[in-house]
Amino acid sequence: MxxxxxxxxxxxxxxxxxxxxxALPQVINSILESMDDKQxxxxxxxxxxxxxxxxxxxxxxxxEILFPGYFSGEKIDGANLVYxxxxxxxxxxxxxxxxxxxxxxxxxxxxGQACLECENTGNQIxxxxxxxxxxxxxxxxxxxxxxxxxxxxxxxHDEIIFSYPGLYAITVYRIAHILSNLNVPQLPRLMTEHAHxxxxxxxxxxxxxGEQFVIDHGTGIVVGETSVIGNNVRIYQxxxxxxxxxxxxxxxxxxxxxxxxxxxxxxxxYSGATILGGxxxxxxxxxIGGNVWLTSSVPKETKVFIESPRLIYKxxxxxxxxxxxxxxxxxxx
Length: 333
Known about the structure:
This protein is of the alpha/beta class. It has helices at residues 3-21, 24-34, 52-66, 81-110, 118-131, 133-150, 157-163, 165-181, 187-199, 250-253, 316-331; strands at 202-203, 208-209, 214-215, 222-223, 228-229, 234-235, 240-242, 262-263, 268-269, 274-276, 281-282, 287-288, 293-294, 303-304.
């Protein structure tokens, strides 16, 4: 193509793009005018909202301390353990206290709450949370041991710590639950939603979950806010522990009410099971089979399964005969 024609086309395309940009100020004005519409939402003039990168950084630092040597950037041994741990804990305290103060101040200013002395309160909560780490490490060790004990595909504790999405989600949940119990707004939910985005496992930080909790595979699991789960419970993929169908104004009427099931000790829930309702109680040592739908309680030591479906087997020779009959009918042979 002639150089003159190419140059002409480029100039035309550039001018065309410029013409489109000239329309932007009018569009911007219309968006600004919509800010006055009280039906919509804006976050203007308030404390900035925290970013997921900060949440991830905080979770990574927690894991580095909860599992020393597993997620550190350098080899940890007797020569540098004290220094490394001291530095990691100090860094976590700074990140965590900043995040807590941030969310406290955000809610205080945005919603006109009584002064919480955000700086002092945030620092106290951060310190309390970090003080709980030794106990949290013991709880997580029980989760890991239970996972290895019940999963023949797992070759070692290390494999579970390094690679199991279920443990990642449980770890984040247990940290977020501590913060939730200390009345930290927003941050616990942001943490568990980050884990949700990474693993497909959605555990509300308000749920109460006992020791030796195992999530096998994990994708598609939902555990609602008011769920209560006992000790030594194992859950497989695509399990929902949720609420019954809610009315349109449920957010007002049912906030704080028990809406999700109670799962007692030593229960196994297989893939695809759905268990709903705040009054639904699954008794100790019960087994809930795959794809079961439950909205009522189950006594202890009970197995609940769906009746085996009627299966149809179609072999190759049957298919060939069927295809020939269809052709004969279509062409009236």
